[in-house]
Amino acid sequence: MAPHACGKVGRFAASDDERLADLTEALSDTSIDIIVCARGGYGLQRLVSRLPESCLGTHRPLLVGFSDITILHQWLGRHNLPSLHGLMCKHIATRPGDSDPIRWWRRAIEGEKMEYNIPSHPLNRPGRVEGTLIGGNLSVLYGLQGTPWSLSERIGELPIDTRPVLFIEDVGERHYHIDRMMLNLKMSGVLDSIGGLVVGKFSECDDDPSMGCTVYETIAKVVEEYHYPVLFDFPAGHVEYNLPLRLNSPVSLTVDASGGKVVC
User: Fold this and answer.
1) N or C terminus: fewer CB in 10 A for the chain?
2) Whole-angstrom Cα distance, residue 60 to residue 122?
3) Rg value, the chain, Cα
4) Number of alpha carbons in the 13 Å side-chain half-sphere of residue 184
5) Predicted local distance difference test score (pLDDT) of residue 131
6) Domains with residue ranges and CATH for the chain
7) pTM higher than the cut 0.85
8) How many CB atoms lie within 10 A of CB 190?
């Protein structure tokens, strides 16, 4: 456990300097194989520009987390390092040990290949693509636009002959906020540059009747002009049944009439 993990400074566990020191030490410590975040609380935007690249030597521990941990997934992605979008300490402590999310989580941290078969959804768009899986929490990704850790920068650093697969999820956002964020990804060229889209859970994001459609339909409308495969309702995000996804790593996405298959 990091020295300052159980403290309290405002809404954080410690000061920015203390949390930065803990994170830098964890990334640098050659005795650590896996870094499991305690929770995905807000605050990493305060630290990401100060993280020293020197802490990423030949030893590269696997970072595990989601939500605001998306910032670290993007930071690691810039260094072409894989990470795991998956359960954190807060959630592991409350899940039955024999539950699917825990079993898949154990397989993921042990490096096993994960193959998920997802039920069909009426908004799915068929197709098949292989590429690098990127993304995470939509609100956090939106907040990184215009920075060195944005989706635009991440996509620009990938090989020009491959298109990445984008994964998004969110919690507690207004319907029109989601529309705004998706349109930002469109106007900034992100949605033009991907080869596939995996839409995870948008929990506590109530449909707004004045929008005239559901949240998922809003997302589908923003990407309707593209031709890549789109998979809706993947079980990952701020939900009890939260399956792990290996980010900044190769993924295969297949969508057809029977549903979707994700292999990562």
Assistant:
1) N
2) 41
3) 18
4) 18
5) 96
6) 16-109 (3.40.50.10740), 115-263 (3.50.30.60)
7) yes
8) 22
**3-class SS of residue 1:** coil
Dist CA 40 CA 251 (whole Å):
24
Whether the CB-CB separation of 253 and 231 falls below 8 Å is answered with: yes
Where residue 43 falls (left for φ over 0; alpha for ψ -120 to 50; beta otherwise) is left
Q: For residues 235 and 87, what is the distance between their CA atoms, to the nearest angstrom? A: 12
Other C-beta atoms within 10 Å of 7: how many?
13
Give the C-alpha distances (Å, rounded to integers) separating 206 from 84, 130, 165.
28, 32, 26
CA-closest candidate to residue 264, choices 202, 196, 216, 201 = 196
DSSP symbol at 46: G
C-beta neighbour count of 243 within 10 angstroms:
23
* Chain segment 34-43, per-residue pLDDT in tens: 999 998 878 9
Give residue 249's pLDDT. 96
Q: What is the pLDDT of residue 40?
A: 83
Helices (H), ranges, 84-158: 89-92, 100-109, 138-144, 151-157
Could you give the CA distance from residue 84 to residue 101 in angstroms, rounded to a whole number? 13
Q: Which two tokens stand for residue 165?
A: 């697969």
pLDDT-derived band at 55 (thresholds 50, 70, 90) equals confident
